[in-house]
Design goal:
Layout: H1 2-11, E1 23-29, E2 36-44, H2 47-57, E3 59-60, H3 62-66, H4 71-79, H5 87-98, E4 111-115, E5 122-129, E6 132-140
Helix pairs in contact: 4-5
Amino acid sequence: MRGLNRVAQLLGLSTPPPIQDLYFDLHFSSGGIGVYDNLAISIPATKELWESVRAFLNVSTPQQIADGEWGEDFIWLIAGEEAPGSIEEAAEAFINEERSEFQSTCRVGQTILFQVESNVNDWIGLWGTTDRLNYLGFSQG
């Protein structure tokens, strides 16, 4: 039950989600290397769940973030030193490289969102379709 409560907390849900078709792998570490969290969730979704999670996490599209105040940090996160040809394609490639095996492949054309202040030390990405939401988070602090 602790894992379900943590999933609810990470997604901003008022109650733990049903276990059916829910997959998650949450690694919270701290110690001599500092805080180092790797978080992956794949959950059945509805339009209402997407809207709720979007609002709670303050996420935007990759292009909106790239054009905003945190654009330089975000582009460095998803593309490194290379200038991306397409922000959406760079975001897709980044997610696919980082995702867990139980999470669906990210594809341009799906919903792809990142937390607005995402950078190499702390980021959250969401992707999926109307019926499945994937969450991937990393924090090194």
